[in-house]
Each structure stands twice: as C-alpha cells, then as structure tokens.
# Entry
Amino acid sequence: MKILVTGGTVFASRFTAEYFSKENEVYVLNRGTRRQSKGVVPIIADRHALGDVLKKYSFDAVIDVTAYNSADIDDLLDGLGEFGNYIMISSSAVYPETLPQPFSEEMPTGANKIWGDYGTNKIAAEKRLLERVPNAYILRPPYLYGKYNNLYREAFVFECAEQDRKFYVPKNGKMKLQFFDIEDMCRFIEIILEMKPKRRVFNVGNPCSVDIIEWASICYEVLGKSPESEFVHKNISQRSFFPFYDYEYALDVSEMSRLMPNVKPLGEGLKQSYEWFKNNRGEVLRKKLFEFIESELRG
# Structure
C-alpha cells in the first residue's frame, strides 16, 4: 500500500511510519525540522499551508497521528488528493471524568477537567473528521508507551532505578494506570486496514491496568532491580514528583480485543523502551521531578 503518516519524526508518528515502511510505501508529512524516519519518503510541508503539495499523490491510507483540533483535520483534508482509508489517533481524554468507568465507545464525549483543552480539541477533531469522512476510523488510546517514547514517563522510573533511588509513590500507590504499547497500536491499525470493520471508533489499550506500585516495580525489574518505595501523603501536586496526573480511569477495550485478542506484555514493552532510551537519552523531554524530590521530599 501507499500510506501517508502525518509527523513521522517523534514517538508515535515515528514508530508508526517505520512500522508500516517495512512492507509498504510510506510517505511522511512534516516541516523537516527533525531527523526523518528510516525507509520513508518525506514530504516537507506545513499541514496548515499545503497548497497543492499533496494533490499529485494518491494514498491507500492516511494515518493521522498529529491531529489535535478541527483545523488540523480541515487543513489536511483540503490539501489531500485521492485517498482510501483515513485513521485518526485520538485520545481517551475525550471522555468526561464524571462518566461511569470503564469508558466505552458508546458513551458521550465531553469536557474532562483533568485534560482541559487537549480533550475538547480532540473531540472537535473527531467530530470534524466524521462530518467530512464518515467512513474514517478513530482510535482512542490511554497512555502510550514503548520505543521512541520521548515523554518523561517510564524514562523517569528507569533513571530512578539506574541511580538506585528511592521511589516516591503518590498516596497509597493503588491508583490504576492503563497503557498501550505503540507497536500494538500499529498492529491494530494494520488489522483495521486489512479487515475494514464496520465499527468506526475504537478504544484501544491493554485490557488490564496496573497500579503505580506494580508499574514502578516492572520498570525497575527491567534493570534487574526492585524499588524501595516511600509513600507521599503531603498536600502537593502529584505531577511535581510523579509523571502522571492524580486521575484514575479505564477504557473498555473489548471491541478492540475481538479483533486483536493478544497484546504485548507490559514487561516486554518496557524492556524495548529501555533499550531505546539508554542510547537516546537526549531525545527525552525531561521535567524537573528530581529537583522537586531533592528540595521537597528528601531529608
């Protein structure tokens, strides 16, 4: 197939481009400000000022990893020539935190106080896409992780383990986290392109969540270590010393599981993430978690 991937240079879009380039002709659309993915054809342009750059191409599929609002959808669609399937990567942030959990695809979308504009903009992007391309597919993942993850999530815990640091756990450590490996997401996109299911919106993710203590322990185990935990009950922002918001949610991924019953074990995915991280530390967007821990929690 001839596939267009938006982005193609950072984490999810980079992995997606390289995954599909193994057996397909993959083009990536970006502004050319970063190192390009391997085995792809770059189309250097801004999706908001495409002109006729894309009009000469015909794509079997468009995988839109970088649509964050309705303008992103409109400007890309206005610039495209002929295309077949359109798959947009949305987010679990489209579900209001007030709904009963786990969130299912049939539940209404709406503002979520944790995610703010990010969630409402994703809702607007989804709506505009389905207005203009009714047969498009929309995927709503929880926390993505894996190779090329430049967000300071598992990378933070890996560094704690490398330095034999005590791990500071929010509250009692029982808050659940739901993850999805970036390779599994690509596998599911592949299934959609092959099977063309009638359902258009899918929650995607690992069927089983883990709590904070379990997640940190698996990260430490990647390095052959076990964390010494200290529980933090102070009235301070969790994000000051931990990578995730104080917000527990779960997605119902049963529709995904009907098409793709097996997902990568979390430990295996985290090993792959660490193998990339230890040789690409400079690509991770660090936050000052260690600085806060040193000044406010240690002692």
